[in-house]
Design brief:
By secondary structure, this protein is of the alpha+beta class. 42% of the residues lie in helices and 16% in strands. The termini are far apart.
Length: 299
């Protein structure tokens, strides 16, 4: 049944709840200038968990071998950005010119869950959202989204973000990574991985920790180490006058540092001895002409 209104018994009285950030709600941003906040990216990421051995990472894409958390996140964020571009186009077709950050974020989360922001499938029928989005009646929009019978937990989160700027509590990537590492070790100990999963887990575990999963045969260890070495991006420079170096690609520095910098074979420390902005590294440590600087970017 198609529903254009929400019955009072199903509608939420949002005044009963505490608004987390009134300024966020009150401040509209031009649609051409807005993009997903870092917080909503983390909320969306929390719909999945990092898995190094199933071929999907954060439930997106496929991989032939085990993948690290960083590789999984790189695939996930590209998919997220694709969804965001499609979502913005849908807002544009509704003639939305400006929108509050929390409303943008909450609607984007719902779009990723539902595939559109025009309908909500609820136990009592299918709500039509279009007119309420056009009119910016966010109370009704949030109440309808809250009634969704698909992925109810995150639809409720989307509604709370839209009306209360309440993003809730979320696990960060460091937790996701560590939990994924522990899971590979635990499942290996329990012998609960298939042969294909075990091969992936052995590589992903080594790539994340530079240690081998227990009970890995010596011959397989050598193969894993060689395969891992092939993934490294290594650049060597000889110092003459400049301490600024542009790398071939941008390494991630969170949740763990994926860049190792060495001078004459001795590793130096991030922040203390060098800084990095995107793919540009500036060495702050004293250098002598002829010093060999080696950059290693890890997966």
């Amino acid at each position: 049944m198609i529903l254009t209104n929400i019955a009072s018994r199903f509608s939420t009285d949002w005044t009963d709840f505490i608004v987390k950030d009134q300024e966020n709600i009150d401040t509209e941003i031009n649609l051409n200038d807005i993009s997903a906040s870092d917080t909503i990216k983390l909320v969306t990421l929390n719909m999945s968990r990092y898995n190094g051995y199933d071929g999907f990472g954060y439930d997106v894409g496929t991989a032939e071998r085990g993948i690290t958390e960083q590789e999984a996140y790189d695939i996930w964020i590209k998919d997220f950005q694709t969804n965001q571009r499609t979502f913005i186009k849908q807002l544009q077709t509704l003639n939305i010119k400006s929108i509050a950050q929390c409303v943008f974020d909450g609607l984007l989360l719902y779009f990723i869950i539902n595939g559109n922001i025009l309908t909500v499938t609820a136990p009592e029928g299918t709500y039509e959202l279009r007119n309420y989005v056009v009119e910016k009646d966010w109370s009704t929009v949030a109440s309808m989204i809250k009634r969704s019978n698909f992925n109810k937990v995150f639809c409720l989160r989307a509604a709370s973000i839209i009306k209360l700027a309440d993003y809730g509590k979320n696990k960060d990537r460091a937790w996701m990574r560590q939990t994924g590492i522990f899971e590979m070790r635990d499942k290996n100990e329990l012998n609960s991985l298939t042969l294909e999963q075990l091969a992936r887990a052995r590589f992903a575990y080594y790539a994340e920790t530079l240690r081998f999963l227990p009970k890995t045969p010596e011959g397989i260890k050598r193969g894993i180490a060689k395969e891992y070495e092939k993934t490294l991006v290594i650049e060597n420079y000889t110092y003459s006058t400049t301490k600024v170096f542009t790398l071939l690609q941008t390494p991630s520095m969170e949740p763990v540092e994926k860049l190792k910098v060495e001078i004459n074979g001795e590793q130096i420390q991030h922040y203390f001895d060098f800084t990095i902005t995107n793919n540009v590294v500036t060495i702050t440590k004293d250098l002598t002409a002829g010093d060999i600087i080696r950059f290693t970017i890890k997966i």
